[in-house]
Here is the input.
Amino acid sequence: MDNNAVKKVVIAGGGTAGWIAAAVLSKTFEKTIDICLVESDEIPTVGVGEATIPPLQLLHRVLDISEREFLSAVNGTFKLGIQFENWLNIGESYIHSFGAAGKSDYAVQFIQYWMAGKNQGIHFPYGDYCAEHLAMRENKFAIGSTTGLNYAYHFDAGLYAKLLRTYSENKGVKRIEGKITKIKTNSTNGFIEALCLDSGGVVEGDFFIDCTGFKALLIEQTLHTEYVDWSHWLPCDRALAVQTETVSEPPPFTRSIAHDAGWQWRIPLQHRVGNGLVYCSRYLDDDAATKKLLSNIEGRPITTPKIIQFRTGTRTKQWNKNCVALGLSSGFLEPLESTSIHLIQNNALRLAKLFPVNGICEEEVNEFNTQSKVEIERIRDFIILHYCVTERSDSPFWQYCRTMDIPISLRHRIELFRKTGKVFKAEADLFGEESWIQVMLGQGITPEAFHVAANSLGDSGLQFFLEKIRSNTQQNVGRLPRHIDYINHYCKSTAF
Here is the structure.
């Protein structure tokens, strides 16, 4: 135990990571500790994290942020899932929605009933039994309806950071403008003591949060925390991002379009569309990637494509000495399942729970690092699944992905589903059983068997059970308004 009480927290870097940290800590400690954030207007943030997953609603409930005001301020739209195109084969697509299909019981998951139905000749798609899945396909959305849709958001990450900055400053967080030029450490224990700025100012603190992006000024360049490289499983190492004008109604989902060396995203906001190309530089050079992206967009570009270099992986310690890394400084998983902001959010909330008010406690540090490690490894496996289970062999990139070795933990899940159709949520899993089911079905895994208890309803009983669920789902979704109509009613943007 380091018995020096933490009275001042210094957040190095702004952007989404920095201001989420500031918002969570200022809400938690209500001005009982000093919090300051150091950032420079001259240093741009990556700012492409525009798609999220449903747990962001929890963060906003914690912070008491109004959903309508938030969405209006950040040009937000709703997201019911992701449409994956060309991942199994070129020209084929599937949906990973945030919803649960059908009804399960204590022993039999709904997919077992669905497979038993297929065995009887009932061949309706699995997504027909899921409201979110069907609403995505029909471009419909509403909150508080009988469907009870599970949803997330698309939004402008830069505007979101501004919203959180205002929130944090209202709760006493002090923002300091300046570039960090040097970091002072204690000669005895190696703890960080202060940030030195280009203005000559010195910002001292007891605890530091590294939100300096890929530079990782504190966690890596100062504390030399090791990095675990996952690029042998996730070989993409570049991303190009560009924004375009809106030319059609925003659908309530993200599009992920696979290409011969990676994939492309399309994220619809109220005022524009976010586009990006994620690729592996071993198989596609930057110039060719730029041409590929610009030839596969809709609407006029309103920004210049910028290249982001990355290396997938994570720190061996997200918390080292008196420093916690959040966001890109802590590691990187490509945004295929929109988990970047979630990882920031979860580690900020985790830090609030384990915060070293009375000084650094190794047990708290170890618990934080253990929880963070398990969480990101589970997400890593889910993302690898999209690459390794495919029928594509049309390019060297996909030939590599479909034949690469994968983590044992992932192989077990795949084989269990392939042989039995069974899926179980593991400890600290972000993605639940339905997410694994929808992606594995979409990627072409057909279970070889189903639970014998799924036949307990009898042929006519099973047919009635499945048809009732499907019919109710269709009726509920049929009553929903169009996505754009609901946006205009509920949260039309004030930001443009």
Notes: The radius of gyration is 23 Å.
